[in-house]
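User: Need the bound-state model for uridine-5'-diphosphate-xylopyranose:
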Amino acid sequence: MKISVIGLGYLGATHAVAMAKLGHEVLGIEPDPKKLQALNAGVLPFHEPGLDVALQEVLADGSLKLASGHSEASREIELHFICVGTPQLAGSDKADTSYVFSAAKELASWVSKTAVVAGKSTVPVGTAKELKEEMSKVAGFEVNLAWNPEFLREGTALEDSLSPDRIVVGAWNDHSVTVLKTAYSEILKKGTPFLVLDVPTAELVKVAANSFLATKISFINAMAEVAEVSGADVVALANAIGYDERIGNKFLRSGVGFGGGCLPKDIRGFVARAEELGVGSAVEFLKDVDAINLRRRQRVVDLAKQELGSVAGKTVLMLGISFKPDSDDLRDSPALEIATQLSGLGAKVLVHDPVSLEALSLKQPALIPQEDVAAGFSEADLVILGTEWKQYKELDPSKLDARTKTVIDGRNVLDVPKWQGAGWKVIALGRNL
Ligand code: UDX
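Assistant: Bound-state model below.
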């Protein structure tokens, strides 16, 4: 099938590669010349395990071609995926849908009557209806718009795209459903559930899923606050409640909380949209979810102040700066916010991260990149684990020296008895050690 993928950021680049891997003839459209040039050379503008190799393969076999915009080739395409970003609007909690609207309106001059346009971007409920009206006005006929949200996670993006838990399609007509079913036929052969919904429900599935996940994380982090003052242990608590299948043990990892380009802005955007619809009180609790999450970052800063006395002039080593492991994404990263705050208080903050140091120097030059982890330890008055990269869990504390052997485990992943046995003071969120 001839497919276009519009917007080759994180979601779009992954989706374009996945569609090519599924056997389609894919045209990837990316107006940013720098991004386009990198992708054409088989280089990803972000870190995602395995995706670079897959990109090089589909470029080499010609199943993925790239362009900076639409051309006559777009008229022959049977299915267009809109994958542009919907970041948080500056100075507001709302999602910025302007990229989706401009991509859709531009496409409307090229789309054929039988082609299907599937939105994959995360949008406020009601956006698709407006988009369909605007596109149809430009096209001069009713455009087959459908909504097909994406649930991929950074770090496992390609795997999530090729083997999703489910495929969700919100459509106004059967034709759109048939075309999308054909596009995903290789995945559906494996028995993956294919859910056909009305469009507003499909739009809501994504924000509802992310809100639920964020709530689960903030729930356990709220328990951490209670555990800290009551002598309880949040890790043992999470484990104990997780045995109940109705609760489950996933997404109950306590620590500095959630960040990234999705969960934080999606819950804020959801509240803003619900308020516009007059049902703000229905999701008012998400403001607490957000506040609990941000309080955990502050808690680490406060613990650092408590340990260091005055932060000014002290050296702090931050282990991990990306919002999660296997990613170099610094958007709304808890570790980055903690490091920036400590630096603002006058600390010399050394940052180690397996893949994010280049991105960090561009974003936050006040933080000092530290390539050699052991050398960073030796200078440190305090070590903070901010991102649970595998190599930090595997560190041998008996081989690490520091000015003061104190570590704050911001992700509850260190082997506490081992670190204590090697002479380290371990402070962990929600635990009384
Ligand atoms: C999320 C959704 O999981 C995905 O389905 C959606 O398509 C995009 O948003 P992602 O942002 O890649 O994916 O990361 P995710 O794995 O959900 O983690 C989000 C944040 O929560 C990370 O900062 C992570 O460290 C944190 N987290 C996750 C916890 O603090 N505790 C947990 O138990 C799980």
